[in-house]
Amino acid sequence: MDRSLVRPLVGVSACLKETGRGGWHHTVGDKYVQAAIRAVGALPVLIPAFGPELGDDEAMADALDRLLDTLDGVLLTGSPSNVEPHHYGKESRPGTAHDAARDATTLPLIRHTIDRGVPLFAICRGLQEVNVALGGSLHQLVHEVDGRRDHRSPKSPDTDVNYAPAHDVDIVEGGLLHRLLGERRVRVNSLHAQGVDVLAPRARVEATCCEDGQVEALSVPDAPGFALALQWHPEYKALENPVSMKVFGAFAAACRARASARLAPMRAAAE
């Protein structure tokens, strides 16, 4: 087998949901799994929302580091749930869904992923998690903030309508996203109620909504590896969208590079 064709292992974050059909389930939308397989060329590995089940902070840190030793990238998914506000010093607003187990998993996972140089690509809730994990805060209901548009989806029975392009974003000149796309303005979908309020100290704005200035993309400049977060959903029909494929392509290249470096000692020992 051509070793250059070995798929990188990419961890995909899951949610913990009570479905009413046999209790609680660790779930992830198939569109994220398909994007990992088809747009990244990876073997996706589900990361359950295990929350505090692994023990204290030291035990969690050890477990996450051992997990990351086996992964070539981490993909943070979107979700109907939101980061619990106590993580950024606010009280919960009515009408927002939460997933405490996911928060307890992804927030420390993000910090370990970034600091260890493992490629990180975060989508929608994932962007919000990155901002909170690094010390930022969120608007819980962006559409109630003066001067902000309604960024929620139309809630149509037609999925294509919900994920259709909704507004333009301005891409920061000279930033990571600008270098990847080669464009200063692109049109994106919009399916979120929450969004960045105070930007995390380690984060850099990569794009904002043209209509209201809401943060639409961020990066982590001091990260030793690839670290990019988008507020929109590039995973939806990614192969049909050139913008999505450029972003996934950059993440894929970073994952392949890590896989090559991670596997090199084992390959050398086998020869």
Q: Could you characterize the architecture of this molecule?
A:
It is a single chain. This protein is an alpha/beta fold and 271 residues long. The protein is built from 7 helices and 13 strands. 32% of the residues lie in helices and 20% in strands.
How is the topology of this model organized?
Blueprint: E1 9-13, E2 15-18, E3 24-27, H1 30-39, E4 43-47, H2 57-69, E5 73-76, H3 100-115, E6 120-123, H4 125-133, E7 138-139, H5 159-162, E8 167-171, H6 176-181, E9 185-188, E10 195-196, E11 204-209, E12 215-219, E13 227-230, H7 242-270
Parallel strand pairs: 1-4, 1-5, 5-6, 6-13
Antiparallel strand pairs: 2-3, 7-10, 8-9, 8-11, 11-12, 12-13
Give me some keywords for this one.
single chain, 271 residues, alpha/beta, 9-stranded mixed beta sheet, two-stranded antiparallel sheet, 7 helices, globular
Q: Provide the β-strand percentage band.
A: 15-25%
- Strands across the major sheet, in which order? 4-1-5-6-13-12-11-8-9
Distance between the termini: 14 Å
Largest sheet: 9 strands, mixed
Overall 3D shape: globular
Give a count of the beta strands, DSSP E runs of length 2 or more: 13
Provide a count of the helices: 7
Low-pLDDT residue intervals, each spanning 5 or more residues: none
**Rounded radius of gyration (Å):** 18 Å
Question: What is the residue-averaged pLDDT?
Answer: 94
- What is the helix content? 25-40%
Oligomeric nature of the chains: single chain
Structural class: alpha/beta
The run of helices and strands is EEEHEHEHEHEHEHEEEEEH
